[in-house]
Amino acid sequence: MAPTRRALVLAAGLVPVGALPAFFGGALWTVWAGAGLALLLGGALDRALALPPRRLRAAVTVPDALFIGESDPCAVELGAPGRRRPTTVEALLDLSPDLSPAPARTVEVRGVGRTEFRLEPRRRGTARVGALWLRWRGPLGLVELRRRDAVDRPVSVLPNVRAVRRTALRFRSEREFRLGLKVERYLGDGSEFDALHEYAPGWDPRALDWKASARHRKLLVQEFRAERNHQVVVAIDTGHRMSEPIEGLPRLDHAVNAALQLVWCTLKSGDRVGFYAFDARPGAWLPPEAGVRAFGRVQRATAALAYGTAETNFTLGLLELTRSLRRRALVVLFTDFVDVAAADLMLENVGRLARRHRVLFVTLRDPELAALAGAEPRSLLDLHRAVVAADLEREREVVLARLRRLGISIVDAAPAAFAPRLVQRYLEIKRRELVG
Question: Counting runs of H as helices and runs of E as strands, what totals does the chain give?
Answer without folding.
Answer: 11, 20
